[in-house]
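Deliverable D5.2: sample structural annotation.
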Amino acid sequence: MAAPELTKADFQSDQETRWCPGCGDYAVLAAVQAFFPELGIPPERIVFVSGIGCAGRFAYYMDTYGMHGIHGRGPALATGLAAARDDLSIWVVTGDGDALSIGGNHLIHALRRNVPIKILLFNNQIYGLTKGQASPTSELGKVTKSTPFGSIDGPFNPVSLALGAEATFVARTIDTDKQHLPMVLRAAAAHEGAALVEIYQNCPVFNDGAFDALRDKKRGAENRIYLEHGEPIRGVVRDAEGALRIGGEGEPVIHDAHREDPSYAFALSRLSSSPDGPTPIGIFRDVRRPVSGRDLARQLAAARAAADDASLDALMRAGDTWTIS
């Protein structure tokens, strides 16, 4: 008997969606619910894990399994779930404060270990839920309730951070781009290991207009530098010293998202220090590497096959102390 065809309605929960009017989270939720039927995975085999912040409510609005965890621990919870249930599609929804502040260590190690989870990082460059403090991605000089004289801390570039952690899939997109956002989500879903997608997301209350240079129709057409594998990167050249830069004389650059050396993707991520001008958008890196958990299972199976199963099991259950000679 063929499985029933899934629709957007199958992924919409009965909970009232409650974010501030104009919040970019609405657009991301709609895009996720619309594209998930394409995966052909029934809702009961999908899990959304979230931490603390406005993005934390996302799990309530998906009619799948879900867990609203504590601050920054989404990747850790998802890692445990992935270790126990390799039959599930596991997604983490987090914000720039949740993921890059208290959750930074969990995030980079989930990426380093290539845990098979998909991480959607909503970046609005502010703490929204707690009413407008500077976040780890707030720009230098940002005046907020916690930085009344302007932030003196250099911000994280989430894409650069993920690439520095050797993430195998790293991408960036925009909340209101109805074509690009689903395309990036599809690619992340198809990736076998850990995938991180940074989503520029507008906070209309505490940081309105932060991404207008990219979200605005006219300005966005000028400033979005789309990354498409195998295609020339508009406006980006390699200069005489081999460095990538925007504009000027140099050799045109053909995008290679599958390049093993992450330094190329890292160089792309450093072309813009803030999203108020020309900024790369798309898949920076998409490579294959052993997936955490799967190789361990194969190693254990091989060890059991090579050893006497009965004696190995007896050793594992022998007691609290072992004697090694």
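Annotation notes: The mean pLDDT is 93. The chain is about 30% helix and 20% strand.
The annotation will be released with the project's public dataset once the embargo ends.
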